[in-house]
Specification:
Length: 396
């Protein structure tokens, strides 16, 4: 049996205004390592992309994305980008789902119907997609799914004919889905069948979960009234409980892959024109708000380990945050082998081993870990040793 330890690469925690231009940002997304970012505007469904964590940005807009944008999501590696439209240039509540499978180098308009799309979610590998619409299913909307990175789409039978959805999220493998409306609907089979959870009715605006689908967090704007809570589930959405986050106009929430780190942003209201950012590092038990310029926040996204965040202001700037990782190792020993795993980090780290904790002679483990796309954990399998072996992650 091996004993595990971990180290934290030294990093500070500072929000930084990026060089992205002022725009009507409506949605941001991040790759699992926090390096590939994409931001969507309401103006012309335009997309801005960064490949270095927000240091530099370039426009990579869909050629015919004329609709007002509503949501953008990314696969874990940033290769698949999915954007939805909400209102077209004529003022009709309708838009397209436009997709890139090469990190924004080129785009195609999917075969999804021309509707008022409000949210989209992607599996970690970008294969399974699910989109929700403000159009009720009786008008051809509701929830649609794709199992081929958006090439083809299929309607689902979620929640009957008279439900308009605000947001959606899925587990890393794309099988478990949570869709936000006045209530929270769930599917355990990639949208084939649906049921309503026991979350209370609250005009849910955004939802996010851990990679394995165990932990979920839902944020409410109470149908735009500015008086919504954040609710949490730690049992795959079976039961929901209120968090200690303040009641406000929540519009977006993000989660780390293990569900321990959460970030939520609130938009301004007619009475209070600026919102706020709140963060939690204990699965939503407690929340803090950073010192950051106030703004009409519209969206927040997180790296897999939760230490790289990106947040956008509607009519303002895009900001990023870098904080110190807490890289906890997990060990499973079966059939004479040891499986060492950790959440995909946003920092450069190396797995090291030692047979004596009193010795400074740590050595790098030979071989490369494998990324498990069902839980966004790096996994390394080593032969089981007869004596104790100590492992740690060292910053590079």
């Amino acid at each position: 049996m091996a004993l595990l330890s971990f180290v934290q690469p030294a990093q500070g925690q500072t929000w930084k205004q990026t060089t992205a231009p002022v725009a009507n940002w409506v949605s941001v997304t991040s790759s699992a390592d926090g390096m590939r970012l994409a931001a969507l505007t309401t103006d012309g469904q335009a997309v801005l992309i960064s490949t270095n964590g927000g240091t530099n940005w370039t426009w990579s807009s869909p050629t015919n994305g004329a609709a007002m944008g509503s949501c953008i999501r990314s696969s874990a590696d940033g290769g698949v980008l999915v954007t939805c439209g909400f209102i077209d240039p004529t003022g009709e509540f309708a838009g397209d789902i436009i997709i890139s499978t090469n990190s924004g180098a080129s785009w195609f308009t999917s075969t999804a119907p021309h509707l008022s799309w409000t949210g989209v979610a992607s599996s970690a590998d970008g294969t399974m997609l699910v989109a929700v619409s403000a159009y009720r299913r009786s008008f051809g909307g509701g929830i649609m799914t794709s199992a081929d990175s958006g090439s083809t789409w299929n309607p689902t039978d979620a929640a009957g004919l008279n439900v308009a959805y605000n947001g959606v999220a899925c587990r890393a493998d794309g099988l478990q889905v949570m869709a936000a409306t006045d209530f929270i609907d769930t599917s355990a089979n990639a949208g084939a069948t649906w049921s309503q959870t026991f979350a209370p009715g609250s005009g849910w605006a955004s939802i996010a979960g851990s990679a394995d689908g165990t932990r979920w967090a839902a944020a409410s704007d109470n149908n735009g009234s500015g008086g919504g809570p954040i609710y949490l589930s730690s049992d795959s959405g079976v039961t929901w409980n209120p968090s200690s986050a303040p009641i406000t106009n929540w519009v977006s929430i993000a989660s780390s892959a293990d569900g321990t780190r959460l970030a939520a942003v609130a938009a301004g209201t007619g009475i209070v024109p600026v919102g706020a950012i709140y963060m939690s590092s204990d699965s939503g038990a407690t929340w803090t708000t950073p010192v950051i310029p106030v703004g009409n926040w519209s969206s927040v996204a997180s790296s897999a380990d939760g230490t790289k965040l990106v947040a956008a202001v509607h009519g303002g700037h895009i900001y990023t945050l870098r904080s110190a990782p807490s890289l906890v190792l997990n060990l499973q020993a079966t059939n004479g082998q040891a499986m060492v795993s950790w959440v995909l980090p946003s920092a450069d780290v190396v797995l090291q081993q030692n047979t004596d904790l009193t010795s400074p002679n740590w050595t790098d483990v030979t071989g490369m870990p494998t990324l498990n796309l069902t839980n966004l954990r790096e996994e390394f399998t080593a032969p089981q040793a007869s004596g104790a072996i100590f492992y740690r992650l060292a910053g590079q």
